[in-house]
Amino acid sequence: MAEIPIRFGIIGCAEIACKVSRAILLAPNATLSAVASRSIDKAANFAKANGFPPEAKIYGSYESLLDDPDIDAVYLPLPTSLHLKWAVLTAQKRKHLLTEKPVALNVSEFDTILKACEENGVQMMDGTMWVHHPRTQKMKEFLNDKERFGQLKTVNSYFSFFADPDFLKNDIRVKPDLDALGALGDAGWYCIRSILWAADYELPKTVSALRGPVLNEAGVILNCGASLHWEDGKTATFHCSFLSNLTMNITAIGTFGTLHLTDFIIPYQEQEASYTTSTKPGFNKLVTGWVSLPSEHTVTVDLPQEACMVREFAGLVENIKKNGAQPDKKWPTISRKTQLVLDAVKASIEKGFEPVEIVS
């Protein structure tokens, strides 16, 4: 007997929802069951443009979708300022929550959302897609290899893209009433997550914003960076920007090895993704070149990373529905740590770039 797929409803017709709609269609254990917008025409057009099944329901209000007893899970791609209200309501309606990042404007809002999820027994996960790519697991195996990589010493992460004038004037990510965290929330979230991922999600002791952030006239961050410091001496830096060429780098350096990749958020190709590693390299006798050159590793995939994310999330929801399992705490814990560091960067900028201690 075939398993019944997890039935998703989407609240809001943001551009990113097109990508996740496709991911839900591709995931073997999920299906698109409904979409809601404040305009029923917009919802209908979105469903048609994104290949929703003919039986999918079209709603002209978010509340109507949340009241639908046939919806198991909700994907929430609304602006960050709306997450608190609609994520809490989603949980109170006992719908499992896959929400875009950043989850909230600050960790206080995050904890309110998480409390609602825990009280209502629903699974929560944020939409950071790259951590679900099979490449990410392979890279983690290298970082965990004490012989090849050794002990993590430092991480550098960078995500930028050059936004055009229309974006910088009109996009929700530069509007203080919609996505007040700007580039820090949109791009910095990925950088912070990559650093925590490399550090086995151990929180740093202190975070210091780098001097020279760029803010727009409304006070929204367009460009910033930070350094992170751990008690054992590990360090990390990141930079995020709407004002620089498209770049998505991670470099993690251990005592013996180095991991490097240049497309960590969105692989250059959907069907495969690569990364390079080096272990104990050195120079030749005349110091005119390296010996033990870095090696490139390629991981091929059957599903794009966003469909892997949906499959993982739907599997957790299915385990709750079918087996009475408790929601998996791994993903909300990782999200909360990312939010904590993001908050600390923002606080450091506001405090004149003073170090801010992380209190979990």
From TrEMBL:
Looking at the record, the residues that make up the Gfo/Idh/MocA-like oxidoreductase N-terminal domain are 6-125
Which InterPro entries did the record assign?
A: Gfo/Idh/MocA-like_OxRdtase_N, GFO_IDH_MocA-like_dom, NAD(P)-bd_dom_sf
Q: What Pfam families does the record tag this protein with? A: GFO_IDH_MocA (PF01408), GFO_IDH_MocA_C3 (PF22725)
A molecular function (GO) term: nucleotide binding
Q: Which residues form the signal peptide?
A: none
- Show where the GFO/IDH/MocA-like oxidoreductase domain sits: 137-259
Family in the record: Belongs to the Gfo/Idh/MocA family.
- What name appears for this protein in its UniProt entry? Uncharacterized oxidoreductase At4g09670-like
